[in-house]
């Protein structure tokens, strides 16, 4: 799949670039008048959007294409059903690995986590969604869970680009290394993973709902790793990495019984795994809210009513 | 042309030979005198004559042209002259002086006219230096300065080496009333009062005589004050707004004073606002929450207090409190005790259901009516039980909820009012919004949107004044239907239903966003939109930021220009009148910049107070220069600044009053240069030599007669001549 920007702007000879005279020895011609440019841009953008949508096979899904407002420069809207639903109600997403059993664990695990969230917190989320990394855009999901150790092939550059954009725009990518037995360097290539450090108990993720010191899943190999710094996006780490098979602890069978035994801590460890899952979602939704609450209370204490 | 003679020598033999001869003659003479030889004296004369002939004396005659001296006439044409009504008198005196000077023989007159140098006042040093730059001191006759004496660089004037006469165009007994600003703070906390220390100077009044002073501020009623004369007084000035607070103080004009312009002073004090206290309550953790947080936390002017309802009262969790990182929602503290201390209350998808009793929401409504601001971001909970669509807040919400919610994509648009309104006017397109720049050139884009294409030219707004505009922004989803808006609808959504409504309630303001999907812009989804700028402006508008007021007239000085900016939601005003410290009001044409915004500008003249007024509309003040600009503060004619210079150069200082200009006399260097009714300019007598003639001083015939004659006489005296004389002596002295 071609990156969208390429056909539109990188070739100076392409029709879509008519509004931008190519740089180079040729002298820059005077800019066309706004109206002309806008109209031309609209036609070209509309054309390009249509062509691309067809070429990329995205138009095949649900497309409630609204007519463009008359007399404006805005192109008609085209919103996929998946995006629309994600925007209307938040939901967890997991990356399809290609392995049916692993995907099943992700699905049931996240479904159970969604239920526990609804029970214990005010975050009411829709059932989780599976993402095909080569087709779907994770942009609108608060948390994307990726059991990377189960993945069969590395991400294409386009897919990696979408994940990078997701992280940059404030998303939270949870990379589960499973039991850590499989090297994943090649699978993570192309992702802009910032420098990481183990989560310490003062980190906002460790107190975004529950107070946590460990981050267990089905296993409790090591504490999760988070970005060392993160000044963008309210200081929220764009990625959380760990080798504990979190979905394995959350996953249940049809009767609601756990699919796997949590090791070594048993049911206590599973409870901690759910708490970590809840903290992850709260961290993704409320950002560093719990980080500056002490500050907020200090300000509040000083306030006095207006006369 | 004059001539002058002098004796010069052109010896016939080289000087050493001449000196040798003279020495020999001297030796012979001494010998003769020692021997008491007769005729020694005559011989000496003969020697002298010979030497004189050899020395070749010449009578040199120079032909000279006398050089004219240069006088400088400096005419002060600065503002203080004009303001005190002396321009005519000065002009007349200048003409008279010019004529008198022109009539002087051997005198060149140079005229330098000095206007004021802005904030520096009237400066003369340069005028004197450049006027005399090419004139050597020996040719300078003197300087006449026609001025009111209000010179602001007197200590820097270098004495020109000739008398400086100061002719003051005024009376010695003039008096003036003025306001002197002794100390004015440049910054102050908005809402507090700043003390401006002034003194009203009026030499005709006894110290402490109460004078009525008017304090005037932009768009506020005048405040009368009583200030004692000639005493330092602190005037408290309320700072009501952030940004420049222009204050004008004026005292009544007294009859007989020189000018009224300095009976007014204007001061600009920058109002600094305390950090805005914003209470953000998120009704639940949701995707949009972090957008509000990011925007408010990034704003350095905001102190954010944020609460999120992380757990509802009916959540079931067996975990003990010690393992939870939760605090009880301080309902009473927030909604009762401290509600009045917030500048902005932002309810983000908040629902009161089972959480906040109605009486607390009533407190919010009251706080708004008392001056706070409320910003509502409505989601689906708005119409649910406990939602804010009903209940106490409904009375301050500027529209009615129908209970319907739309769940389809729509593109937010600007209404006709929104195109004008400062909160939404000219919002930049967000094609390069966050999340769109992946940095490595592979822009993945989203589902089918032509990311990166287009330049959003439509968003500039200039092409379609006063018609709704749908910029090329990314779409939103979900809108709570609200109808019958009572405020200004600046953004529209589905079916052009109100998306963003702004209104004023009592002393406060309310903004309602009828969608909870603004966050889609922040994600850069389908190109995203300018949510950061919109939220910043929205928050600052609710708190009365002057730059975001719908109706505004501002006057600013920028790079020596006076810039009038008029913003209005109504019909554009064609003109504005600007009144400066001097002269009649000027009418400027306001040129439209974009819908609702027009500007005009003009060059700044005198420093002082400028007032812009829309005919029949608002007015605005601006201050150019310091509170007491030198040129307009002191207007009484005074001898003081220049008297030292005049004295040091042997010149004089006098008030011309209504009398004639003094007579001009030429005086010899070193003699007195002024007197009653006259001023003296030095006559230097400098000249240039135009020719030289040499005439021999000892003609040949005289030399021939002199030298041999003396020699013969000496010989005669020495010998036979002596005998003859001896006989003669005997004849005439019979006693012997």
TrEMBL record, chain B:
<feature type="transmembrane region" description="Helical">
    <location>
        <begin position="12"/>
        <end position="34"/>
    </location>
</feature>
<feature type="compositionally biased region" description="Low complexity">
    <location>
        <begin position="443"/>
        <end position="465"/>
    </location>
</feature>
<feature type="region of interest" description="Disordered">
    <location>
        <begin position="428"/>
        <end position="473"/>
    </location>
</feature>
<feature type="transmembrane region" description="Helical">
    <location>
        <begin position="41"/>
        <end position="60"/>
    </location>
</feature>
<dbReference type="InterPro" id="IPR029062">
    <property type="entry name" value="Class_I_gatase-like"/>
</dbReference>
<keyword id="KW-0812">Transmembrane</keyword>
<protein>
    <recommendedName>
        <fullName>Glutamine amidotransferase domain-containing protein</fullName>
    </recommendedName>
</protein>
<keyword id="KW-0472">Membrane</keyword>
<keyword id="KW-1133">Transmembrane helix</keyword>
């Amino acid at each position: 799949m071609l990156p969208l920007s390429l056909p539109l702007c990188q070739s100076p000879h392409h029709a879509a670039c008519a509004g931008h005279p190519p740089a180079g020895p040729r002298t820059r011609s005077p800019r066309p008048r706004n109206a002309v440019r806008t109209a031309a841009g609209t036609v070209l953008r509309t054309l390009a959007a249509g062509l691309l949508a067809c070429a990329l096979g995205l138009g095949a899904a649900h497309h409630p294409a609204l007519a463009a407002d008359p007399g404006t420069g805005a192109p008609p809207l085209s919103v996929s059903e998946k995006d629309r639903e994600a925007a209307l109600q938040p939901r967890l997403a997991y990356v399809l690995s290609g392995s049916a059993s692993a995907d099943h664990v992700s699905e049931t695990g996240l479904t159970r986590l969604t239920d526990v969230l609804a029970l214990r917190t005010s975050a009411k989320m829709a059932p989780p969604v599976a993402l095909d990394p080569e087709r779907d855009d994770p942009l609108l999901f608060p948390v994307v869970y990726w059991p990377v150790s189960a993945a069969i092939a590395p991400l294409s550059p386009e897919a990696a680009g979408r994940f990078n954009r997701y992280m940059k725009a404030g998303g939270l990518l949870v990379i589960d290394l499973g039991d850590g037995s499989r090297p994943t360097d090649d699978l993570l290539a192309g992702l802009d993973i910032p420098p990481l450090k183990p989560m310490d108990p003062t980190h906002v993720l460790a107190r975004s709902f529950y107070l946590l010191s460990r981050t267990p899943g089905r296993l409790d190999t090591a504490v999760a790793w988070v970005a060392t710094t993160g000044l963008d996006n309210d200081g929220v780490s764009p990625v959380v990495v760990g080798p504990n098979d979190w979905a394995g602890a959350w996953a249940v069978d049809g009767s609601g019984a756990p699919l796997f035994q949590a090791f070594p801590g048993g049911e206590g460890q599973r409870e901690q795994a759910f708490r970590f899952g809840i903290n992850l979602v709260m961290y993704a939704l409320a950002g560093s809210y719990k980080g500056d609450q002490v500050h907020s209370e200090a300000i509040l204490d000083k306030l006095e009513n207006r006369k | 042309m004059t001539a002058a003679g002098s004796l010069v020598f052109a010896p016939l033999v080289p000087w050493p030979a001449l000196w040798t001869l003279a020495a020999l003659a001297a030796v012979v003479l001494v010998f003769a005198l020692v021997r008491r030889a007769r005729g020694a004296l005559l011989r000496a004369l003969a020697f002298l004559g010979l030497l004189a002939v050899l020395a070749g004396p010449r009578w040199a005659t120079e032909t000279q042209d006398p050089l004219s001296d240069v006088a400088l006439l400096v005419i002060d044409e600065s503002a203080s002259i004009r303001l005190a009504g002396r321009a005519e008198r000065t002009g007349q005196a200048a003409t008279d002086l010019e004529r008198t000077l022109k009539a002087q023989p051997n005198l060149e007159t140079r005229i330098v006219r000095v206007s004021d140098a802005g904030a520096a006042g009237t400066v003369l040093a340069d005028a004197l230096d450049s006027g005399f730059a090419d004139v050597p001191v020996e040719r300078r006759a003197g300087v006449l300065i026609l001025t009111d004496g209000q010179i602001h660089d007197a200590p820097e004037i270098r004495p020109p080496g000739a008398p400086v006469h100061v002719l003051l165009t005024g009376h010695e007994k003039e008096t003036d009333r003025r306001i002197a600003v002794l100390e004015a703070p440049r910054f102050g906390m908005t809402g507090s009062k700043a003390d401006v220390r002034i003194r009203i100077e009026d030499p005709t009044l006894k110290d402490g005589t109460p004078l009525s002073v008017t304090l005037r501020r932009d768009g506020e009623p005048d405040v009368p004050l009583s200030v004692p004369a000639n005493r330092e007084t602190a005037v408290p000035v309320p700072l009501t707004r952030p940004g420049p607070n222009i204050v004008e103080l004026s005292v009544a004009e007294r009859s007989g004073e020189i000018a009224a312009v300095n009976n007014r002073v204007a001061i600009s004090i920058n109002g600094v606002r305390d950090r805005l206290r914003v209470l953000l309550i998120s009704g639940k953790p949701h995707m949009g929450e972090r957008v509000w947080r990011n925007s408010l936390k990034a704003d350095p002017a905001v102190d954010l207090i944020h609460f999120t309802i992380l757990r509802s009262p009916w959540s079931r969790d067996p975990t003990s409190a010690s393992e939870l990182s939760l605090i009880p929602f301080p309902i009473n503290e927030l909604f009762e005790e401290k509600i009045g201390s917030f500048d902005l209350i932002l309810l983000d998808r908040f629902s009161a259901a089972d959480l906040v009793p109605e009486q607390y929401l009533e407190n919010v409504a009251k706080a708004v009516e008392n001056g706070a601001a409320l910003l509502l971001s409505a989601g689906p909970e708005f119409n649910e039980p406990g939602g804010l669509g009903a209940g106490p807040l409904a009375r301050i919400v500027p529209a009615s909820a129908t209970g319907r919610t739309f769940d389809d994509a729509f593109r937010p648009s600007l209404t006709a009012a929104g195109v004008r309104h400062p909160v939404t006017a000219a919002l930049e397109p967000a094609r390069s919004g966050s999340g769109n720049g992946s940095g490595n050139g592979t822009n993945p884009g989203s589902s089918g949107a032509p990311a990166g294409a287009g330049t959003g030219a439509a968003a500039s707004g200039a092409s379609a004044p006063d018609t709704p505009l749908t910029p090329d922004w990314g779409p939103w989803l979900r809108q709570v239907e609200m109808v019958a808006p009572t405020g200004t609808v600046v953004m529209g959504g589905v079916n052009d239903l109100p998306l963003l409504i702004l209104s004023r309630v009592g002393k406060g303001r309310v903004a309602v966003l009828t969608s909870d999907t603004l966050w889609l812009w922040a994600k850069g989804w389908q190109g995203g939109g300018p949510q950061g700028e919109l939220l910043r402006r929205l928050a600052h508008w609710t708190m009365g930021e002057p730059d975001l007021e719908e109706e505004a007239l501002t006057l600013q000085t920028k790079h020596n220009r006076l810039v009038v900016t008029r913003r209005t939601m109504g019909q554009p005003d064609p003109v504005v009148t600007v009144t400066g410290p001097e002269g009649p009001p000027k009418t400027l044409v306001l040129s439209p910049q974009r819908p609702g915004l027009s500007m005009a500008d003009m060059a700044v003249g005198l420093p002082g107070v400028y007032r812009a007024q829309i005919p029949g509309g608002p007015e605005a003040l601006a201050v150019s220069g310091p509170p007491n600009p030198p040129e307009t503060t002191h207007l009484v004619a005074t001898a003081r600044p220049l008297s030292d210079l005049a004295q040091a150069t042997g010149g004089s200082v006098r008030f011309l009053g209504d009398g004639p200009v003094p007579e001009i006399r030429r005086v010899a260097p070193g003699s007195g240069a002024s007197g009653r009714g006259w001023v003296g300019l030095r006559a230097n007598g400098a000249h240039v030599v135009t020719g030289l003639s040499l005439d021999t001083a000892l003609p040949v015939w005289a030399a021939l007669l002199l030298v041999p004659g003396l020699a013969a006489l000496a010989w005669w005296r020495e010998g036979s001549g002596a005998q003859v004389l001896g006989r003669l002596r005997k004849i005439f002295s019979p006693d012997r």
